[in-house]
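Appendix B, example 12.
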Amino acid sequence: MNVGLIGCGGMGTTHNLSLKALSTKMKVEVTALADCRPEFLKKASIQWPNARLYQTGMELLESETLDSVHICLPSYLHTEHALAAMDKGMSVFIEKPVCLREEEAERLLESQNRNGVQVMVGQVVRSFDEYRYLKECFDTGRFGELKSITMQRISGDAAWGYEDWFHEEGKSGSVVLDLHVHDLDFLRYMLGEPDSFDVRATAFSSGMINQIFTTYEFGKVFAITEGIWDISSALPFEASFHACFEEASVVYKGQKEKTLTVYKNGGLIEHPELHQEYNVTDDSAGINISNLGPYYTEIKYFIQCLQEGTPIEVAPLEEGIKSVRQGILEWKRAKEYVNKRQL
């Protein structure tokens, strides 16, 4: 399977390293790379010395015939590259958020339907072992019914983006579509669409939303989420959740050595044994990601679906778009809340 990688920066490096590891076990090879920065392109090509190199993703797509392409560009460039790839009959792995606007969502869905290709969205939290354990507890009723869940995704200010694109709200979708979208997507994945939701938010001095609190009701389940780009870039990243079931609480703290803890009724404490498929830490991406395991898992799944001709079910295009649509609604309410507070 011949693969193209468009975008060799932070997230592109994560994909590149995962694809290289997978190439030792699966018939997959990156044969084309694209990035406008020569130093990043050179670094990526170390893994694939025979790959053809391009300055732009569009040049790659115009010149290549590939089985699939991974789009790891800034969010505002996702749609145009995904459309061009699909029009050439390539299957697409596109990083989250899949798009930023409703009109882009409609164009992506129409193109996939017209071209008949497979598209997966990088909602990687669906592939984290701790979150998969949580969903399994919910699906099976292992600890009774879920009553409530709180989720946090805390990060320092996103200062690593090319040409500071994170801080242009129209390019990143703010903290809502770039960071918070992970937790709202997982809640949808586990609980379905919310019956109702309410938003509180803060903003940088520029007016861009940098912190969002959303409360949801999913039937009988109450959920609270926080996503923040802190005012300081020095604050370390951490994701966490606290899920309260009838018979136990399941707690995840991403920075702890034992990340997952179950507190059972009666005081018994357990640390579930998780068997990570690929346990490698690598800081070379230069972003707030070092654990490659979940990325390896989701990309392996994508490749298997393509090779076996089976539909993508874990994070297909339509799911990524539903999460963006929910995020757009929350983003709008966040802006309204901040503007109202300033009156």
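The mean pLDDT is 95. Residues 131 and 268 are 21 Å apart (CA to CA).
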